[in-house]
Design the sequence.
């Protein structure tokens, strides 16, 4: 496209050359440097001869003026409203010179399309995306309050101000599609596949909400380092919207004059509904070829958590809030799309959640960059955001004065894979001190064959858990609370020698079917950990848990969902695992509380566990044994209901999940297990549902005395 435009320009009688001068009615500009070609135009860096100011001038041949006439009109109106200090490019003047129409702007640096492409698709850091989003939301607030819509926001229309003096400052350019919002329905808006809102394609009534859609797609591009959706086929783009973001409601499709291009109205019974056309139907009705495209393989915006190659450090809660903002910006119903002023008060922008993270660098950088952006706006008299006496929305006050504490560590980016294809072989007992995920023993153990002995302990797993258990039971935090326990191995005052550490046993936390857990202090270090000991007869479960946690603890985004395994070793014939020290299990907490949880408390636990199950599903792992004593509170006093999933001794590769036999504790057992039906990772979801209902009802939702009931 750029080449074609250059040919058009070169065929004109007037040639733009470096060193030449062009004049308006009041100014003379000397061309210092030819920058680049855009559609129907050429950009040059120029100097105002009278003032010495460096500007950018866009030269458009007069025969293409109709495509840019709207931009000239809009920029003149915006200049009169003094909106240039609201992160909108400063416009100087528009004039004619020979056979060109010239637009003079302030000189800006690179567009984000150029920056990402130049970096070979390296994503923009989430901390910087927040600053970009904030400045663009300020710009849209200014436009909306003045009654204008940009209608063409995309990566190439967001430029950095000055990568040296204003490293994180950005401004909005590219106004040929812009118009008074009230006039949108009367104008033809150029389509930009991958960024234009669906209501534009459907030819529905339009308003300023289409800018929020464009900005959402742009922020997604910056986060991923590539286009979120197909950009070279309008059918594939619409199919992406339907598959990932949802199909527009029938009411909206009924309003669209072009809805029939993409959707077909069919009758079912006495009702009519719309469905997306098949590729062949689309080609037949439009005559356009449907191109094959492979763009990210997204199924939901939550997949951003797995697709992103975001640089470190990275805070998961921050990413979650970013995705939540994207959902609100990319709502297929324009009426439900978040407004710019409301988006400025979204948690991702205000950063209130960052008070509670432990990564001081991440917090400090987030605050510094946002304050730098705000400071620049105050320098540019941010009060000019709206016309005089208008009741504009105020930008939220970002309060960083309070900071909480958190014990979870931050994420590191590590590629991991689960090797599970080796057949099980008889292997002698071996020292697991040097354990690696690539160890052949893991390939042998992390499979369905670990369930060979599961039935033998089934009666132990079937015990109904009651909060009203005898008070003589330990009420201290533990890592397993199965009813039958192994004989005591650890005693307070005992010294255990590990790989390179010495552990002083301070307190026994609990015991269960497979092991015993103690609170230990590492000799020579001011560090307290949880040490779990197991008998050699449970070596397969021991190695299985080590492998699973080594994989899960290396996840970029989700390791905060799972207990952290620090080390594993043997000592005097027993197997040991060193874990981070957590607070207490939900089982122990419910015993102390003596009553059910509130809906908000159950919701907090559910959200975290669903994220954990989502991560397990993507890795092809099924926990198989989720119950109330396998979820631990991290630090309930400092972080109420922050939880982690533990106990992966019976975890299994989902493809090797045994399709016969009984497993799962009875109160949490999925019906397909009891009935002998095919089973997959959904058995974990059932168990979680039983657990959450028990927390809310203070009793199990189903009878659990026997399988029949």
Sequence:
């Amino acid at each position: 496209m750029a080449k074609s435009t250059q040919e058009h320009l070169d065929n004109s009688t007037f040639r733009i050359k470096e060193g030449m001068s062009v004049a308006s009615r009041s100014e003379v500009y000397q061309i210092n440097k030819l920058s680049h070609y855009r559609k129907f135009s050429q950009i040059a860096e120029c100097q105002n001869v009278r003032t010495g100011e460096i500007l950018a001038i866009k030269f458009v041949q007069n025969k293409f003026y109709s495509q840019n006439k709207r931009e000239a009109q809009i920029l003149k109106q915006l200049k009169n409203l003094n909106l240039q200090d609201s992160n909108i490019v400063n416009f100087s003047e528009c004039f004619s010179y020979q056979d060109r129409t010239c637009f003079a702007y302030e000189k800006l640096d690179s567009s984000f399309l150029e920056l990402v492409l130049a970096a070979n698709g390296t994503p923009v850091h989430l901390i910087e995306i927040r600053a970009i989003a904030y400045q663009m939301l300020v710009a849209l607030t200014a436009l909306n309050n003045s009654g204008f819509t940009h209608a063409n926001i995309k990566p190439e229309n967001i430029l950095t101000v000055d990568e040296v003096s204003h490293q994180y400052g950005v401004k909005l350019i590219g106004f040929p599609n812009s118009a008074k919002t009230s006039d949108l329905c009367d104008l033809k808006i150029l389509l930009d596949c991958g960024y234009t809102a669906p209501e534009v394609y459907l030819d529905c009534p339009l308003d300023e909400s289409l800018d929020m859609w464009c900005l959402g797609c742009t922020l997604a591009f910056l986060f991923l380092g590539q286009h979120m959706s197909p950009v070279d086929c309008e059918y594939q783009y619409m199919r992406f919207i339907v598959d990932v973001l949802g199909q527009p409601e029938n009411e909206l499709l009924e309003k669209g004059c072009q809805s029939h291009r993409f959707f077909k109205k069919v009758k079912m019974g006495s009702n009519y509904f719309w469905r997306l056309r098949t590729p062949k139907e689309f080609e037949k009705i439009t005559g356009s070829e449907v191109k094959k495209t492979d763009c990210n393989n997204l199924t939901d915006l939550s997949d951003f958590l797995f697709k992103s190659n975001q640089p470190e450090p990275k805070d998961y809660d921050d990413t979650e809030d970013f995705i939540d903002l994207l959902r609100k910006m990319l709502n297929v119903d324009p009426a439900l799309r978040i407004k710019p002023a409301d988006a400025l008060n979204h948690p991702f922008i205000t950063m209130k959640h960052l008070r509670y993270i432990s990564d001081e660098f991440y917090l400090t950088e987030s605050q510094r960059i946002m304050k730098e952006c705000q400071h620049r706006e105050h320098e540019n008299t941010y009060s000019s955001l709206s016309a005089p006496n208008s009741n504009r929305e105020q930008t939220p006050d970002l309060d960083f004065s309070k900071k909480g504490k958190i014990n979870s560590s931050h994420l590191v980016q590590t590629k991991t894979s689960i090797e599970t294809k080796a057949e099980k072989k008889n292997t002698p007992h071996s020292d697991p001190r040097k354990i690696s995920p690539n160890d052949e023993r893991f390939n042998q153990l992390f499979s369905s064959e670990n369930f060979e002995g599961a039935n033998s302990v089934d009666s132990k797993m079937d015990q109904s858990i009651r909060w009203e258990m005898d008070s003589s039971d330990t009420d201290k935090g533990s890592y397993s609370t199965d009813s039958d326990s192994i004989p005591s191995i650890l005693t307070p005052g005992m010294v255990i020698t590990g790989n390179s550490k010495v552990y002083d046993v301070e307190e026994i936390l609990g015991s269960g079917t497979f092991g015993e857990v103690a609170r230990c202090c590492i000799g020579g270090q001011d560090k307290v950990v949880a040490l779990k000991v197991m008998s050699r007869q449970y070596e397969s479960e021991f190695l299985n848990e080590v492998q699973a946690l080594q994989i899960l603890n290396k996840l970029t985004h989700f390791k905060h969902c799972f207990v952290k395994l620090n080390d594993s070793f043997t000592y005097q014939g027993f197997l040991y695992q060193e874990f981070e020290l957590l607070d207490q299990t939900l089982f122990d907490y419910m015993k102390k509380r003596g009553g059910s949880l509130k809906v908000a408390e159950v919701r907090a636990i559910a959200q975290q566990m669903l994220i954990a199950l989502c991560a397990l599903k993507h890795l092809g792992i099924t926990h198989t044994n989720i119950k109330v004593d396998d979820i631990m509170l991290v630090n309930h006093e400092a972080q109420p209901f922050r939880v982690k999933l533990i106990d992966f001794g019976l975890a299994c590769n989902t493809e090797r999940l045994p399709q016969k036999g009984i497993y799962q504790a009875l109160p949490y057992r999925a019906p397909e297990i009891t009935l002998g039906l095919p089973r997959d990772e959904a058995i974990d979801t059932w168990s979680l549902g039983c657990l959450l209902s028990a927390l809310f009802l203070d009793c199990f939702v189903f009878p659990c005395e026997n399988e029949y009931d």
